[in-house]
Amino acid sequence: MALELARAQVDAMIEHAREDHPIECCGLLAGRGGRVETVLRGHNADRSPFTYRLDPQEQLQLFKQMDALGLDLLGIYHSHTQSPPYPSRTDVAKAFYPDAAYVIVSLRDKATPNDQVDVRAFRIRDGVITEEELVVT
Fold first, then answer.
1. Which of 13, 26, 41, 118 could form an S-S bond across to 106 if both were Cys, CB 3.0 to 4.6 Å?
2. Dihedral, CA of residue 135, residue 125, residue 87 and residue 12, to nearest 10
3. 116 φ, ψ (degrees, to nearest 5)
4. Structural domains present in the chain
5. Residue 114 and residue 66: Cα distance in Å, rounded?
């Protein structure tokens, strides 16, 4: 199943990654039927360039916001500040939502224009990584 995002939503994730650099950014993607309707920014409680973690209270608030809008969790996004957009061992170990897509924005070269930033999506289920089609409209 493909994950569909508008170009402006991809740009919003990239801008979040740029603003939080040199630490990883993170947030949630909410929508219906594989189509993202909103990007919900989070704050990386780890404050790390190598790992990310949403604060549990903030995560609860974002889930309440999704519920109020009648949206489902479609994805979880974060950035990699120095590496390619492929799940790390830590990403796999912390992949607690097997039905969500894990979207990774790579800022290996922070000067790269938005339309050339490498953004990829994956499913991570039982430690198995499968690339997901990312459709940008």
1. 118
2. 40
3. -115, 0
4. 3-136 (3.40.140.10)
5. 27
Instruction: Name the average pLDDT for the chain.
Output: 93
User: What's the pLDDT at 80?
Assistant: 95
Residue 88's SS3 state is: coil
The DSSP secondary structure of 32-71, one letter per residue, reads ETTEEEEEEE--BTT--SS---B-HHHHHHHHHHHHHHT-
Strand 101-106 and strand 72-80: pairing? parallel
pTM here is 0.94
51 with 24: CB under 8 angstroms? yes
In three-state secondary structure terms, 109 is: coil
